[in-house]
Write a structure and sequence with these properties.
64% of the residues lie in helices and 9% in strands. The chain is of the alpha/beta class. Helix 3 (59-109) runs antiparallel to helix 4 (118-162), helix 4 (118-162) packs antiparallel against helix 5 and helix 12 packs across helix 14 (492-505). Strand 9 (558-563) and strand 10 (566-571) form a beta hairpin.
């Protein structure tokens, strides 16, 4: 893809300017002052002092000049010390925070399907890992570009006033930097791009080894060897990528050093010495010229290097722009209708869905109406389409065909964020966060007493309050010990009860429970389903329970049986048993596991 160097860099500069304009200005000022000091000492200061040696200035003038220089130097270095040690660290945090916030916010709006593709993770990883540091590289590159250009121009003019031969030895290194530097920047970018998948695998291993939730498996099994092999193969890939580009980098590096330092720097020194021997330049001019040669060599190197960096930055900024410019299929910023407080029906009309890149439908021609006050059970073997149906209902995806109606209105007409917030859901693969119990229930900051009461009531309804109330800080206790030594680690059953509390905390009109009892013992499971069914019935909720345990489904008024994405059967427990179909077969097979024959146990 063709990348616009100037356009991309200006895009990122504006991004930083919107966050912290003072950092942009002072970054340029500080860099320029540093080069101005360098230029002053390498050219004007030397010229003034050696003009004194030749008798053009008095001793008193030199003393006053030096004192003025000392005072200015103290002021300049005081400013640079404040800028580097006080201002930069503070604004670094500000820029990092706002850039990451922008990326986090964008990540929240991308389609769920993105999280199921490696390409998205590669793009997201590149954008996230590069954004912060790249911001400062862009600032430094442009500040270096302008400062080194002005400073080197002044030094070159001074050198050309002494001898025009200096222009020859400056032109060759400058062209070498431009031509070879661009190639070097492209190679560096290509290397990093090819290394992203391998680096992501190494980062994954780092996370797994670091996080507590994997500690048990790492110590009880040999999975560490699998992870170690993964890490080694990824590291070998990065080495292989580096080796692929090694010869090109070596050739470019050698050519640059020879053209820049051997021909340019040392060639100019030899030229200056010859001119001095032949009497074309005075001793003072020779000293100024030699000093200027050293300075201009590094200034040109910085100038050409800044151009290379600007070109390289443009490629990396393209990753960021690609991510920020991503247009989701489901626009969460669109707005729409306010979801109703009372939900009477959710109707699937001829709904089919196929995951991107797949050849077959995950759901086929689903027609069913979920009704308020009716407890619905969604059953089927793994891969039957249960989770897909819930994802469509929550509008994580839109149907490939058909429509989903809430109270007779297409759910795409509702404000998507408010629509999702109107549904209380507890998922089997839920996550607990290193925050207080209340914050884990409400999944937000607790701002009112009413929210606190609702969360505590939900904990009681789910059966989690017995455990939470026994903790030293009760509902204010931090979950996990990652940031708080007084935090607690909940058992699997306790975690699941807390997840169910989430579904009831906001008293939503729609409740979805995905395998709500998978980590519970039979007694706790029975008590939980009694509570859940009573709550759903009492509050006239529209409830959907996804479960593999058909004993749980049996207490629901309506059971939906999915098989290979097709709604195979619907009806009550008794009716489905009489029909002797898929549900009856599954129920009887599970029931066999609970039957005990006489004589199975010795007295």
């Amino acid at each position: 893809k063709k990348v616009s160097t100037l356009k991309n860099n200006l895009f990122f500069l504006k991004l930083i300017w919107d966050i912290c304009p003072s950092r942009v200005l002072l970054n340029f000022v500080s860099t320029f002052l540093g080069f101005a000091e360098w230029t002053f000492y390498s050219v004007f200061f030397m010229r003034y002092l050696f003009g004194t040696v030749e008798g053009t200035r008095s001793f008193e003038e030199v003393v006053w000049f030096i004192w003025i220089v000392v005072v200015l130097n103290i002021g300049l270095n005081s400013f640079l010390a404040w800028y580097g040690n006080c201002f930069v660290p503070k604004t670094n945090v500000t820029i990092h925070y706002h850039l990451n916030s922008k990326l986090f916010q964008k990540a929240q709006g991308v389609d769920l399907s993105c999280y199921e593709t490696p390409d998205f993770y590669n793009t997201y990883t590149r954008a996230m890992t590069e954004a912060g540091e790249r911001a400062f590289w862009v600032l430094d590159s442009w500040a270096l570009f302008f400062s080194s250009f002005i400073s080197s121009a002044i030094v070159i003019i001074t050198m050309s006033e002494i001898t025009l031969w200096s222009l020859v030895f400056i032109f060759v290194p400058l062209m070498a930097h431009f031509i070879l530097g661009k190639k070097e920047g492209k190679i560096q970018y290509d290397m990093q791009q090819e290394s992203v998948p391998a680096n992501r695998r190494m980062d994954y291993v780092n996370r797994v080894v670091y996080f507590r939730k994997y500690a048990g498996e790492l110590r009880l099994t040999n999975v560490y060897q699998v992870l170690k092999s993964m890490f080694k193969s990824a590291a070998d890939e990065t080495v292989e990528v580096a080796n692929t580009y090694a010869k090109k980098r070596l050739w470019i590096g050698f050519s640059k050093n020879w053209l820049v330092f051997v021909l340019g720097f040392e060639g100019m020194w030899i030229c200056a010495a010859i001119l001095a021997v032949l009497g074309y330049v005075s001793v003072s001019q020779l000293i100024v010229l030699l000093n200027a040669i050293v300075s201009v060599s590094w200034m040109i190197k910085d100038f050409a290097g800044s151009i290379t960096s600007i070109q390289t930055n443009a490629f990396f900024i393209e990753n960021l722009k690609t991510f920020l410019d991503y247009v989701p299929r489901i626009d969460e910023t669109k707005g729409g209708l306010e979801p109703p407080e009372s939900v009477d029906t959710i109707e699937f009309q001829n709904v089919s869905f196929r995951y991107p890149g797949q050849e077959t439908d995950a759901l086929q021609k689903i027609n069913y109406t979920f009704q308020r006050g009716v407890r619905h059970a969604l059953v089927g073997i793994n891969g039957s389409g249960k989770s897909t149906l819930i994802k469509l209902l929550l509008r994580f995806y839109d149907p490939t065909e058909g429509v989903i109606l809430l109270n007779g209105v297409d759910i795409r007409e509702y404000d998507i964020k408010k629509y999702r917030q109107s549904v209380g859901a507890a998922f089997q693969d839920f996550a607990l966060f290193s925050a207080s119990v209340l914050e884990n229930v409400l999944l937000k900051e607790v701002t009112t007493e009413e929210e606190r009461k609702n969360a505590i009531l939900a904990l009681k309804d789910s059966g989690a309050w017995e455990k939470i109330s026994s903790l030293p800080e009760q509902e204010n206790t931090s979950l996990t010990k990652e940031f708080d030594n007084s935090g607690v680690e909940l058992s699997g059953g306790e975690r699941q009860k807390l997840a169910i509390a989430r579904a009831f905390a906001k008293r939503n009109a729609v409740v979805i429970l995905d395998e709500p009892s998978s980590a519970l013992d039979p007694i706790a499971e029975y008590q939980m389903f009694e509570t859940i069914t009573d709550l759903c019935k009492e509050e006239e909720k529209l409830s959907i329970i996804v479960s593999h345990r058909l004993s749980s489904a049996a207490i629901c008024e309506q059971i939906l049986v999915l098989e290979n994405g097709v709604l195979k059967e619907t009806g009550t427990h008794e009716a489905l048993l009489k029909a002797n179909g898929t549900y009856a077969y599954m129920f009887r097979k599970q029931a066999e596991n609970y039957q005990v024959k006489v004589g199975d146990f010795d007295e």
